[in-house]
Amino acid sequence: MRKKIRVILADDHSIVIEGLKAVLKKTAPDILVAGEARDGRRALALARQSPADVYVFDISMPVLNGLETMERLLRADSGAKVIMLSMHDDRPTVEKALRAGAKGYLVKESAAGEIARALRIVHGGERYLSPSVSALLDAAAPCSRDGGAINHEWSLLTAKETAIVRLIGEGLANKQIAVRLSIRSGTVQVHRRNIARKLDIHKQTDLVRYAIREGLSKP
């Protein structure tokens, strides 16, 4: 029997959580809601107690909002897979969430019909965006000479690379980053070479500025 996908849902509106739970219970026997929270702090406590396969965080939560909650979760577990849930599908909000490490973005208006598919896709290692969000980003993306859309810089980085950029922006050296992420210093260096190639940023100071400018780290 295939292992169920364990999910933690966090939203300060009970009706949202209950609605998503009901949909998943009815339509997705392969998905288990392993925990639910009404604020970011409680969501992090649940993640520490029993990590989930995928997390769904509402952007607008009390105590810690969804972005802050995701940031803290990724510091503790750089491989965590987070889907942001929001009433907003404006480009700045979506891009900020994806730059910060979100693997999915669901608009609440259509979340009930998309939640199961989104969880399966993100659990499988791919990114999921609500159709309205995907269309928004495609429309905003510049085009290459052959007419294809050019990826935004943030979409080029893996979750691990994004976490490393975040820590570089906070002033951590390779050895400190290795300790924080529980990987080897040599592995950090490999990731840094990949980051430099993908972003075309090769100086430490420029990478720090990039992390701050893109909202990955605080000045």
Describe the structure.
Mean pLDDT is 86; it is low at 142-151. It is built from 10 helices and 6 strands. It has a 6-stranded parallel sheet, sandwiched between helices. The protein has helices spanning 14-27, 40-49, 66-76, 91-99, 108-123, 131-140, 159-169, 174-181, 185-199, 204-213, and strands at residues 5-10, 31-37, 54-58, 82-86, 104-107, 128-129. The protein folds into 2 domains: 5-140, Response regulator (Rossmann fold), CATH 3.40.50; 157-213, Winged helix-like DNA-binding domain superfamily/Winged helix DNA-binding domain (Arc Repressor Mutant, subunit A, Orthogonal Bundle), CATH 1.10.10.10. The chain is 52% helix and 13% strand. The protein starts with a strand and ends in a 6-residue tail after the last helix. It is of the alpha/beta class. Helix 4 (91-99) links the parallel strand 4 and strand 5 (104-107). 35% of the residues are buried.
Note the topology.
Elements: E1 5-10, H1 14-27, E2 31-37, H2 40-49, E3 54-58, H3 66-76, E4 82-86, H4 91-99, E5 104-107, H5 108-123, E6 128-129, H6 131-140, H7 159-169, H8 174-181, H9 185-199, H10 204-213
Parallel strand pairs: 1-2, 1-3, 3-4, 4-5, 5-6
The CATH architecture of the largest domain can be named as 3-Layer(aba) Sandwich
Taken from the alpha-carbon principal axes, the silhouette is globular
What CATH calls the topology of the largest domain is Rossmann fold
Structural class: alpha/beta
Strand content: 5-15%
Q: How would a crystallographer describe the biggest sheet?
A: 6 strands, parallel
Task: Return the domain count.
Answer: 2
Q: What strand line-up does the widest sheet have? A: 2-1-3-4-5-6
CATH homolog superfamily of the largest domain: Response regulator
CATH class value of the largest domain? Alpha Beta
Number of helices: 10
- Succession of helices and strands: EHEHEHEHEHEHHHHH
* Mean of all residue-level pLDDT scores: 86
Give start-end ranges of low-pLDDT stretches.
142-151
Helix content: 40-55%
> Based on DSSP secondary structure assignment, what is the total number of beta strands?
6
